[in-house]
Design goal:
The complex is a heterodimer of chains A (202) and B (241). With 202 residues, chain A is an alpha+beta fold. Chain A has one domain: Glutaredoxin (3-Layer(aba) Sandwich). Helices cover 35% and strands 26% of the residues of chain A. In chain A, the strands form 2 sheets. Chain A has an 8-stranded mixed beta sheet with strand order 1-10-9-4-5-6-2-3, sandwiched between helices. Chain A has a two-stranded antiparallel sheet with strand order 7-8. In chain A, strand 2 (46-49) and strand 3 (54-56) form a beta hairpin. In chain A, helix 2 crosses helix 5. The two termini of chain A are 35 Å apart. Chain B has helices at residues 2-24, 28-31, 142-150, 165-171, and strands at 32-39, 46-56, 66-73, 81-84, 87-89, 92-99, 103-112, 118-127, 156-161, 180-184, 190-195, 201-203, 206-208, 213-217, 222-227, 234-240. In chain B, the strands form 5 sheets. Chain B has a 4-stranded antiparallel beta sheet. Chain B has a 4-stranded antiparallel beta sheet with strand order 4-3-7-8. A 3-stranded mixed beta sheet of chain B has the order 9-11-14, with no helix packed on it. The longest helix of chain B is centred in the N-terminal third of the chain and has 23 residues, at 2-24. The N and C termini of chain B lie far apart (57 Å). Mean pLDDT of chain B is 87; it is low at 19-28. Classes of the chains: A alpha+beta (202), B alpha+beta (241). Chains A and B meet through helix 1 and strand 1 of A and helix 1, strand 13 and strand 14 of B.
């Protein structure tokens, strides 16, 4: 008789499982950011990082990556976003172990790995700075739909600003770009989404 | 114990019946499925073939139908031209046509079955001179688009960017995206941008890849703006309380 029950329960689980699969990711409708459907597949990339090792996207499956394009001498969007990301990171608590905060410079000519490391560690020592080669910046930006353009304002080492996309990108544990946050998004919304995604993905 | 067995059996019967019913239920619209493809894909100026698949509700190909295509460029005042299918191969009907100009076009596929019933499907397509390099796919019919629009919840504001939108707005003053979008936290609070174009587009502050749908719920008032690759201007999103 127990074989009969096991069979019945198995069929029940299978049927309810089919329903769950049809509905897609269960968390999608609860996210606060701008959600992409389907999530965008990203080309794998490897960049030198401030940890002293290479950072390869595909090696971070199972983690949430919050990625921001900017530059060290940015006067506004970058420091405010990094400060918000520090709040996100500290509010996440334990799940932060499965989160990488990544700052990718769009100004590799002025941002060496050494001064990127100084910059990111101001906000949090766990934050990672990435430095693409100058020729690789555009390709990297393109797959995120981001842009960066120099604007000359004077002479000397700070002769130019870089106008750049100020959107924060969330890469899900499957390595896909799934959520974007407009500049100014409250940090609690990002904490909410990251917790939801990590909680759902187990 | 018998009661538990009966209960589980009852639930199973209900679930299995419902599952089978939902898999097989039919409606008039679903009786015949018409799908449109083209070779080359997407459509471009010059001679080419429309490829039409006609299937019944179970996905079985229907042979022996009279299939024709009526094509008309939308913005040029050109008359509609009707061409019949010339051959049937691999469960598909092939209709040779010629596009004379670049632009947005209407394609109507008419299918008359051997029992005399007639089915029709309309498509708005874009005819390129130099098409973007994209994966082969079927065209989305106007009925499908309308069905999606009919299902929109009250709190959502939808923008559907049609195929070729960026090219079209370079040629004609057509506003696919309004310059000002008004939303409210307590009412219409979610912006959905579905990009049916074959290239990525930027709509205000959002970049949406080809074939992607972006959904942003606004939980707080604010103003967001950015340029638009379709309207070639600035899109402003105002979110009130």
């Amino acid at each position: 008789m127990w074989r009969f029950y096991s069979l019945m329960i198995g069929i029940l689980l299978l049927l309810t499982g089919c329903g769950a699969m049809n509905s897609g990711n269960s968390y999608v409708n609860q996210l606060s950011g701008a959600v992409l459907s389907p999530p965008r597949e990203l080309d794998d990339f490897t960049l030198m990082s401030t940890t002293g090792e290479e950072f390869t996207l595909s090696e971070h499956q199972g983690e949430v990556i919050l990625l921001f394009f900017g530059y060290r001498t940015c006067p506004d969007f970058c420091p405010t976003t990094m400060a918000e990301l520090q709040r996100v990171y500290s509010d996440l608590g334990e799940p932060a172990d499965r989160v990488k905060i990544v700052f990718v410079t769009v100004d590799p000519e002025r941002d060496s790995l050494e001064n990127l490391e100084q910059y990111t560690s101001i906000f949090n020592e766990d934050f990672i700075g990435l430095r693409p080669e100058t020729d690789d910046v555009d390709d990297l930006l393109e797959q995120f739909g981001a842009e960066a353009e120099r604007r000359f304002v004077g002479d000397g080492p700070l002769a130019y600003l870089v106008d750049h996309t100020a959107t924060l990108f969330l890469i899900n544990p499957q390595g896909q770009l799934e959520v974007q946050y407009l500049y100014g998004t409250h940090y609690s919304n990002i904490v909410h989404d990251v917790s939801l995604i990590l909680g759902t993905s187990g | 114990m018998k009661k538990i067995a009966l209960l589980i059996s009852g639930i199973l019967i209900v679930l299995v019946t419902g599952f089978v019913w939902s898999s097989n239920r039919l409606s008039a619209d679903e009786y015949v499925q018409i799908e449109l493809y083209s070779d080359p894909f997407p459509m471009r100026v010059g001679p080419m073939e429309l490829i039409v698949s006609v299937t019944d509700s179970r996905g079985n190909a229907i042979e022996g139908a009279d299939v024709s295509a009526t094509t008309q460029l939308v913005h040029h005042g050109a008359p509609p031209i009707t061409d019949p299918a010339r051959r049937y191969e691999n469960d598909q009907y092939y209709i040779p046509i010629i596009w004379a100009m670049v632009g947005q076009a209407m394609v109507t596929i008419d299918v008359e079955l051997s029992d005399g019933r007639i089915f029709s499907e309309e498509y708005i397509v874009f005819v390129y001179m130099i098409p973007p390099d994209i994966e082969y796919q079927r065209y989305i019919s106007e009925r499908e688009i309308q069905a999606d629009l009919d299902d929109i919840p009250d709190n959502e504001y939808w923008i559907i960017v049609p195929a070729g939108a960026r090219e079209i707005t370079g040629m004609h003053m057509i506003e696919f995206v309004p310059e000002l979008i008004n939303l409210s936290v307590s009412g219409q609070n979610t912006l959905v941008i579905r990009n049916d174009d074959y290239v990525a587009n930027t709509v205000g502050p959002f970049y949406v890849g080809a074939g992607e749908t972006l959904r942003q719920r606004f939980d707080a008032p604010g103003v967001f703006q950015g340029t638009c690759t379709i309207n070639q201007g600035v899109i402003r999103i105002e979110v009130s309380e």
